[in-house]
Design brief:
alpha/beta; three-stranded mixed sheet; 347 residues; single chain; Rossmann fold
């Protein structure tokens, strides 16, 4: 661990930290970074999880547990002083899957944390979707009343409230769109069209978004392990932190920066009317295929896409967590594209 990092996160090397969702996009990146900082680490994984990406991480102990049933969760938490909860359901065919994968599973984890003695600190990675969209030109902050517009967002907000009600010392991070090396969902869904020089764009007005690079989110999660307020039991917005790079980008800006990152000219935009987005979501939900992986597009996702702005301010995270993003969108996309090329996923 460098002197700079020791000063930035004092005492982090003495922590014993359990990470749920450790085999996922964010989880693998976080576990590797924590291992480099000298933490004692436990990765909670499902019995069926592919642990290939965790191979070779020094000092990592794997705890097999199932948040869907609660099996093994108490044993996994035994002896840890911090739990970073990343596991969750991002895509689902039915609303009930979001409740099971985000709300109910978090309830089982929180119950196990509440039974531990002494109580571990819980760092809960939620989502901007739990707060809801912002108004154009007015990024959301933590005091803006929550108004989730999707089943995914409602399930994440309900998970936060479970932790609050249990009086477990909890810090909640609500990141916006996360991208970067290791992302197999968000950026890859736009790369084929970027290579062709075309991108879809909802009809005017221009949609506004905030983004956060996965390494910056990991830095915020690590900071929340050692500092930051926790949720008060009687409500209020204390203990909640919005996480982004602090900038606002138009959808066209994102598409142009992505084209630049892969070495393509500025894209041609194909306008997509809002009703067509909504109808596509309905058609995906009505698909007769009920097995296999969930579709990226559905009614829930369509409702999020139709919102005019998903932006947030990061003043509180800067003040309380000393959160200073290292990546703006151009550099962040360049790092992601370099990773895709290194993996043979881009020419």
């Amino acid at each position: 661990m460098t002197t700079t990092e020791r000063h930035r996160w004092p005492g982090i090397e003495s922590r014993t930290i359990l990470v749920t969702g450790a085999t996922g996009f964010i989880g693998v990146r976080l576990v590797r970074r924590l291992a480099a900082l000298g933490c004692t680490l436990v990765a909670m994984v499902r019995p069926t999880s592919d642990r290939t990406l965790l191979t070779g991480i020094p000092g990592l102990r794997v705890a097999v547990a199932d948040l869907d049933t609660g099996a093994g969760v108490h044993a996994a938490i035994d002896g840890v002083d911090t739990v970073v909860h990343l596991a969750g359901q991002v895509k689902a065919r039915r609303p009930s899957a979001f409740r099971r994968g985000n709300t109910d599973s978090t309830g089982r984890l929180v119950a196990a944390v509440a039974d531990a003695d002494p109580l571990p600190r819980l760092v809960l990675c939620s989502s901007l979707a739990a707060a809801g969209p912002s108004d154009p030109g007015r990024p959301r902050d933590e005091s803006t009343p929550v108004a989730p517009v999707s089943e995914y967002g409602r399930s994440k907000l309900a998970a936060e409230e479970i932790a609050r009600a249990a009086r477990v010392p909890t810090v909640v991070l609500r990141p916006t769109i996360v991208y970067g090396p290791g992302d197999h969902d968000f950026l890859p869904s736009f790369l084929p069209m970027a290579r062709l020089g075309t991108q879809l764009r909802p009809t005017r007005p221009e949609r506004e978004y905030s983004f956060v690079h996965v390494d910056d989110l990991c830095a915020a999660l690590i900071a929340a392990v050692v500092r930051g307020e926790t949720l008060p039991p009687d409500g209020g917005d204390a203990g909640v932190y919005l996480i982004s790079d602090g900038q606002v980008y138009g959808w066209s800006d994102f598409c142009r920066e992505l084209a630049t990152a892969i070495g393509r000219p500025r894209p041609r935009f194909v306008p997509v009317p809002g009703p067509l987005v909504h109808a596509t979501g309905w058609l995906c939900d009505l698909s007769p295929v009920r097995r296999g992986p969930a579709l990226t597009m559905n009614r829930d996702r369509a409702h999020e896409i139709r919102q005019l702005a998903w932006t947030c301010a990061t003043d509180r995270a800067r003040a309380d967590l000393d959160f200073t993003p290292a990546y703006r969108l151009p550099d962040g996309l360049a790092s992601a594209v370099a990773w895709y090329r290194g993996q043979g996923l881009l020419p």
